[in-house]
Recover the amino acids of this structure.
């Protein structure tokens, strides 16, 4: 099953609700458009909610290119990637034993690293097959289904992470609002997504049928979406998609690209790396204020 087989429908802008957009390109027969009001770039029409659920439920998902390439990496490379993200996340914790929810936890490798440090961890995964890998490999608690309907207790997590997940979601604003409700007051949300402002390649050109990226964020549109969901943005900067390549020359090439991106960023003060990492704190809403 590919994205080309899915039922689709036109959608309003997820950030501002606007219905006017200008085409950016056509990717795998679906149009990528930019909102005329706020500038958010997204696939429109999009696969329907039911179609996406069917897509995630397909066992074949685990064999598809975008997923199976994960297994080409050595265990040490995968661990290095997650340890970097975990180490960065720890900066926002003031001792204690944090309770963490990883939304879109994939094969559970990040949750495993966090649990080794004594954290209390839970996962949510869209693919039942991937969730089963989490359970059988690591014995993790992983929920599947619809995050908006799951019966997690509100305010029960100190941290929620979404590593390269938000761009796949049909309703990113609704999911971020749900994450806000699941966080305790003062809780922290950590996100990483591909960067539309990447120096050498626009993320919307990656084949949609392989990536299923429905949204293409810039640092500006990502921060605006997170604020609209009721968060205060703490930090928004280049992310790290790791150097987990089987071939050494690819590792060197990417390290060079990162160095050039950093130099451009210093000159322009903009994020032109391949990803955006954003940390946000749940904003407490005074009576009468809009969420
Ligand atoms: Zn918009």
């Amino acid at each position: 099953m590919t994205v080309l087989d899915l039922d689709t429908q036109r959608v309003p802008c997820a950030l501002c609700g606007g219905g006017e957009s200008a085409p950016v390109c056509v990717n795998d027969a679906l149009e990528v458009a930019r909102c005329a009001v706020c500038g958010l770039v997204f696939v429109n029409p999009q696969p329907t909610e039911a179609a996406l659920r069917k897509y995630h439920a397909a066992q074949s998902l685990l064999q598809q290119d975008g997923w199976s390439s994960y297994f080409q990496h050595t265990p040490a490379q995968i661990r290095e990637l997650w340890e970097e993200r975990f180490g960065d996340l720890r900066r926002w914790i003031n001792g204690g034993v944090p309770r963490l929810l990883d939304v879109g936890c994939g094969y559970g490798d990040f949750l495993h690293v966090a649990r080794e440090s004594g954290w209390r961890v839970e996962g949510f995964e869209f693919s039942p097959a991937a969730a089963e890998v989490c359970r059988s490999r690591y014995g993790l608690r992983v929920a599947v289904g619809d995050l908006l309907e799951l019966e997690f207790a509100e305010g029960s997590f100190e941290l929620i992470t979404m590593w390269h997940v938000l761009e796949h979601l049909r309703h990113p604003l609704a999911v971020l609002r749900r994450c806000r409700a699941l966080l305790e007051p003062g809780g922290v949300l950590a996100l990483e997504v591909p960067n539309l402002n990447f120096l050498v390649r626009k993320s919307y050109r990656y084949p949609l049928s392989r990536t299923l990226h429905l949204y293409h964020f810039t640092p500006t549109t990502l921060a605006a979406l997170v604020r609209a969901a009721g968060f205060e943005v703490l930090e928004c900067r280049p992310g790290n998609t790791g150097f987990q390549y089987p071939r050494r020359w690819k590792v060197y090439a990417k390290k060079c690209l990162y160095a050039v991106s950093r130099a451009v960023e210093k000159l322009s003060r903009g994020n032109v790396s391949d990803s955006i990492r954003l940390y946000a704190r749940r904003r407490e809403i005074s009576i009468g204020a809009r969420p």
In short: Residues 3-282 form a domain with the Rossmann fold fold (CATH 3.40.50.150). Residues 79 and 109 are 8 Å apart (CA to CA).
